[in-house]
Amino acid sequence: MDLTQTSLFSGISQADLSALLSCLAAVERRYSKGAVILAEGEPTQWMGLVLEGRAIISCADVWGKSSILGFAEPGAVFGEAYACVPGEALLISVCAAEETRVLFLNVGKLLTVCGNACPFHARLIRNLLSISAGKNLQLSRRIFHTTPKSIRGRLQSYFSECAKKSGSLTFKLPFNRQQLADYLGVDRSAMSSELSKMQRDGLIQVQGGTITMLPQP
User: Fold this and answer.
1) pLDDT at 114 over 80
2) Residue 117: its pLDDT value, please?
């Protein structure tokens, strides 16, 4: 992956990248499918940048029920908000959804101007602020999707966003069935039943992980 093409390193030249990674004590790690990358309840001083694979971000209640908050694909970062607050315990867990490679960066070193006074630190901080703002909007969208009381209402809200984002009434879901149910805060069996009803009612077509929203009269 060309790091200079990611949102985090946007505007930073390839020539400056090596020095920047050294300043941030960058380290790369690999994780197998299902492995915990960041554990709920533990503090972290590192944020992660996904280089390959996919990470699922979730939280669990005291009964062990998991809720999917989102996912991080190549080029996306995670854990940055907690890393900016030293000692703050994570309220989330980050796990590898598949074979995943992550670049970790020490946020404390990012927020403290190093002795070399590297000019690209300021650019990196601006990029990180922009990413954080985008994530706040993403969480706001999830609130919109979980506001409807009915499962159908939640599915329609989420599918509508997916269609707008893809620019097509046909789109591939980024979640499997269980992950989608967790993201929307509903029971998987009940959700699957509702998907079947929506298909019978002529609202959607479902083919594996691909959804087509059908035009309505």
Assistant:
1) no
2) 58
Is the distance from CB of 30 to CB of 96 less than 8 angstroms?
A: no
- The answer to whether 94 and 56 are in contact (CB under 8 A) is yes
Count of C-beta atoms within a 10 Å radius of residue 62: 5
pLDDT at 101 over 70: yes
DSSP 162: H
Q: For residue 97, give both structure tokens.
A: 């959804």
User: Going edge to edge, which strands form the sheet with 55-60?
Assistant: 36-38, 93-96, 55-60, 66-72
Q: Please, where are the H alpha helices in the chain?
A: 14-23, 80-83, 107-111, 120-146, 151-166, 177-184, 188-200
Q: Which amino acid is at 119?
A: P
Q: Position of tokens 């509903």?
A: 186
pLDDT tens by residue, 120-163: 778 888 899 999 888 888 888 888 899 999 999 999 999 999 99
Instruction: Report CA dihedral (100, 106, 107, 110) to the nearest 10 degrees.
Output: -120
pLDDT at position 173: 93
| pTM confidence score | 0.71
Q: Which of 68, 115, 65, 117 is nearest to 95 (CA)?
A: 68
Sign of CA dihedral 153, 156, 158, 164: negative
Query: Whose CA is closest to 156, among 209, 207, 199, 208?
Result: 199
